[in-house]
Write a structure and sequence with these properties.
Number of domains: 1
Strand content: 25-35%
Order of helices and strands: EEEHEHEEHEHEEEEEEEHEEHHH
CATH class: Alpha Beta
Structural class: alpha/beta
Number of strands: 16
Low-confidence stretches: none
CATH architecture: 4-Layer Sandwich
Mean pLDDT: 96
Number of helices: 8
Helix content: 10-25%
CATH superfamily: Ribonuclease Z/Hydroxyacylglutathione hydrolase-like
Distance between the termini: 44 Å
Largest sheet: 6 strands, mixed
Radius of gyration: 17 Å
CATH topology: Metallo-beta-lactamase, Chain A
Strand order of the largest sheet: 1-2-3-4-7-8
Shape: globular
């Protein structure tokens, strides 16, 4: 939690696949969103309650079960179904991901709010800009958390990791789309932007976009062809 601003921000390490979920909201409004609620939804809701925050919606980076719940590798992962059982609320997804989220989790289509890239959800003085970043899945999105006068926080899901990027060898993934998402969208963010990925694949849980531009090989490549070679495509 950031004590000298209106931003409420928690990173929570959950599950058997090193997932990172987030609680993002406004101290003044006492409201927050859950980003990728899976594995232990009760713990996330209990954390928000302990902090005196009301959860008013879920933000989904993409439809894979380790981020939203469902069946994966013989595991039945708790997710959006449990969240809505505890408390009905809108589930914000990219418009290209809505059907996948419904199919994987079994929630009702009426619970899903579909968004275009660039849409904004907000509470108090905190705005969350929804950035469409296809590649890992067609409707993958990142969340740029903005507060006036302060550096942004980018919650990047499985699009950008510390020192890496998301897989493009899965159904619905596309290496060229990933390149454009990384270089045409995320690389244009200010160096000061704080980066928070969807998995703890590095010793640290966060970085800056400036550091990743300098050190992440998938952001340092100078052409699409080089990137495709890195990804084993083309």
């Amino acid at each position: 939690m950031t004590s000298d601003s209106d931003l409420y921000f928690r990173q929570v390490h959950l599950g058997e696949m090193a997932n990172l979920a987030y609680l993002v909201g406004s101290v003044s409004s006492r409201q927050c969103f859950l980003v990728d609620p899976a594995w232990n939804v009760d713990a996330l809701l209990d954390q928000a309650e302990s902090d005196g925050m009301e959860v008013v919606g879920a933000l989904v980076t993409h439809y894979h079960p380790d981020h939203v719940g469902g069946s994966l590798f013989g595991m039945n992962i708790q997710g959006l179904d449990r969240l809505l059982e505890r408390k009905p609320m809108p589930v914000h997804v990219n418009e290209h991901e809505a059907d996948g989220v419904v199919q994987v989790t079994g929630i009702e289509r009426s619970d899903v709010v579909s968004h275009a890239g660039g849409d904004v959800v907000e509470t108090g003085g905190v705005r969350v800009r929804l950035l469409h970043t296809p590649g890992h899945t067609p409707g993958s999105q990142c969340f740029l958390v903005e507060e006036s006068g302060r550096d942004g926080h980018l919650v990047s899901g499985d699009t950008l990791f510390l020192g890496g990027c998301g897989r493009v060898d899965l159904p619905g993934s596309n290496a060229e789309d990933m390149y454009q998402s990384l270089h045409g969208t995320l690389k244009k963010l200010p160096d000061e932007t704080l980066l928070f990925p969807g998995h703890l694949y590095a010793p640290e849980g966060s970085s800056t976009m400036g550091e990743q531009k300098r050190t992440n090989p998938y952001l340092r490549v100078d052409s699409l062809q080089t990137f495709l070679g890195f990804m084993g495509v083309g």
